[in-house]
Amino acid sequence: MKETVIKTDQLSKRFGSFIAVDAISFEVQKGEIFGFLGANGAGKTTAMRMLCGLSVPSSGTAAIAGFDIYKKTEEIKRNIGYMSQKFSLYEDLTVLENISFFAGIYGLSNSAIKEKSEALITRLGLQKEVKKLVGELPLGWKQKLSFSVAVLHEPKIVFLDEPTGGVDPVTRRQFWDLIYEASEKGITVFVTTHYMDEAEYCDRISIMVDGRISALDSPSALKTQFKAATMDEVFYELARGAKRGD
Amino acid sequence: MKQFINFVRKEFAHVMRDRKTLLILFGMPVAQILIFGFALTNELKNSKLIVFDQAKDPASQEIIARIEASRYFEVERNLSNAAQLESVFKEGKIKMALVFPAGFNASLLHGHHAQIQVIADASDPNAANMLTNYVSAIIQDYQRSLSKSSLSPYRIIPEVRMLYNPQLKGAHNFVPGVMALVLMLVCVMMTAISIVKEKETGTMEILLVSPFKPILVIISKTIPYLILSLLNVGSILLLSVFVLDLPVNGSVLLLFAESMLFISTCLTLGIFISVKTSSQQVAMLISLMGMLLPTILFSGFMFPIENMPYLLQLFSNIVPAKWFYIIVKSIMIKGLGFSAIWKETLILVAITAVLLIISLKSFKIRLA
User: N or C end: fewer C-beta atoms under 10 angstroms in chain A?
Assistant: First the structure.
C-alpha cells in the first residue's frame, strides 16, 4: 500500500529573471529515503525551502503530507521536521534544555517531553552529557542530536539540508543509521547531500541541474541507465552539462 | 500559551547564562549614575586663582577674603609684579587672575568708581565663562553690602528663583538622561543582537519551520529585555532617591508606565534593526552609531536642543529619547501628571506604531 507524502507539479521559483527552480515534478512515498542531489547553485535549497513553507513558490503546485503548500502551511509545519545545513541547536543551552525546548515549541505535553527526551538520550548514549552545554559536544554528536531533535515530534517527513557536512566518515555512517531507524518508523526522509556514497544509501535519488530535475530513479537503475560503475560517474555525467554553478 | 512560556523560559536561559553581559546590563546603570553623580559635574570647584594686589587696602582685602571663602576658588598666592602673570598662566595650573590697581579703596570711596581686572584662562571657554561669572557675582555681592551703608536712593535688586531645581543640582539633568540612555542601550542593542543571532546560527529557520508563530518568536525574544529594563528603571530610581537625594516628585506608577512605553519603543527599534540586518556585528554597529549617538546628542540631556541649527532641531523630533527625557523630567522633577505629558506620550506611541508596522511588513517579506 503506497502513500504519497510529497507531490509536486511544475513547481517553480523565480527571483526576477533568474529561474532558481524550473518546473520540477516528482512524488515521494511514505517511509522512503529520497536523495535530492545537485551541484551548488542547482536550486536544491530553494526547492527544499519551498517544500518546508519557508518560501512561497512562483508557480506550480505541491502537497506535503496531503496539505496544499499555499493554503495549509500551518498543517504542513506540524507534520514536518527540518534540519538545516548550519548546525542549529542552541550552543549556550544544555543538551536537555535544547531537547525540551524544541519538543515544547511543537506543543508536546510535559510528560511526553520527559519520556521522549529520556529515550533519545539513552539512544544516543548521552546520559553523562545531559547537563553539558551543547557547544561543548563534538560536531558529530551535535549533528546526531540535531537530527534526533528534528524527528522528536514524530513528523511525517523530515527535511535534511546537507546534514553531514564536515563530519568524519564513521560519524556519517552512524548518522545514516539514525536515518534508517527513522525511515523504518515510517518517517519519510528528504535529504540533500554532496557525498555520492550517501546517495547510494538512498532508496531513490533525483539529480538537479540548472533548476531542473534531470534524473530520478533508484541508485542502481541510474547506474544502469548511464552505464556507470558508481554514482560519482552518474553525477559527473549530468552535472558536466550545467551552465551555472558557483 | 504553554509553547510561549516554554519559549520565554529559553530566552531567559540565554540571558542568564551569559554572566558577563548580564553583569554589564545591571552594572552599567549603577555605574553611570554614580559616575555622573560624584565624578562628573558641571560645577567647577576649587579653581586655582592668583591675585596681584597693588592696592593692599581694606576694599581689596575684603574682596579677596570673600573669594577665598567661596568653595569655587582657592587663592594660590600674591604676585609681586605684573610680568609674572603670563608665565603663571603658561604653567597651566592657574585658571584665573585678579588685578587690583593701586589706590583701589580710595577711588571706590571718593570717585565712586573702581576697576578690577579679571583675567581668565579661556583655553577652556566654558570653564572660563563660568569662573568669570562666579567672580562677578562675588564682587557684586560686595558692592551691594557697600551700598547698603551708603544709602543710594535707586536700587534694583533682582530676586532670582530657580524653579524645580533651586540648588542647580546636576542630578536633575542626568538622571532622566541616563535612564533614556540605559533603556535605549539594553532594549535596542540587546534585542537586535539576540534576534540576529538566531538568524546567524540558523536556529531561526528551524523556528520558522516549526508551528510556532513567527510573530510570537519575536515577542518572546523581547520579554527578558522588557523585564530587565524595568528592573534597571527601578535601580536607577532607587539610586537617585537614596544616594543622590533626588526625590520623585510625581507619580512613580506613571513614571513606570511611561518607561514601559519607552521600552516598547526601543524594543520595536531593536526588532526593526534585526529585521534589516543579518549579522550580529552590523546590528551592534547600527544600534550604537545609529541609535545611541543620536540619543546622547539629540535628547537634550547633554546639549541644549534650543541652540542647535533649525534642521537639527527638526531632526531631534524623531529621536524617541528626546520625548522620554521630557516625560521623565516632567514627572520626576516638576511632579506633573499625565495631562502635562500626553502629547509626548502620544508621539512615542506613534513612533512605536510606525516602527512596528514597518518591521512586521519587512519580516513577512523576508519570509516569502
Answer: N
Q: Are residues B180 and B306 in the same domain?
A: yes
Q: List the B73-78 sheet strands across, edge first.
A: B73-78, B47-53, B96-100, B117-120
B209 interface with A at CB cutoff 8 Å: yes
By the CB < 8 Å criterion, does B210 face chain A?
Answer: yes
| Its pTM surpasses 0.90 | no
Residue B155 maps to a domain: no
A77, A86, A100 ranked by CB distance to B211: nearest = A77
Q: Domains in chain B: how many in total?
A: 2
Contact map slice: A 97-126 vs B, CB within 8 A: 97, 100-102, 104-107
Q: For residue B33, what are the domain limits?
A: 2-40+170-367
Are B197 and B223 contained in the same domain? yes
Q: Return the DSSP state at A133.
A: B
**Are both B197 and B329 inside the same structural domain?**
yes
**Same-domain check for residues B34 and B91:** no
Sign of the CA dihedral running A89, A95, A98, A100: positive
Task: Given the cut 0.90, state whether the ipTM is greater than it.
Answer: no
Indicate the angle between helix axes B171-184 and B320-332, nearest 10 degrees.
140
Tell me the C-alpha distance between B271 and B277, whole Å.
10
- Are the beta carbons of A105 and B367 separated by less than 8 Å? no
Tell me the C-alpha distance between B333 and B173, whole Å: 9
Architecture of the domain delimited by A4-239: 3-Layer(aba) Sandwich (3.40)
B274, B353: one domain: yes
- Out of B119, B150, B181, pick the residue that ends a domain: B150
Residues B132 and B204 in one domain: no
User: Domain for residue B220, yes or no?
Assistant: yes
Integer Rg of chain B from CA: 28
Mutate to test the interface with A, among B209, B215, B220, B364 (most CBs of A within 10 A): B209
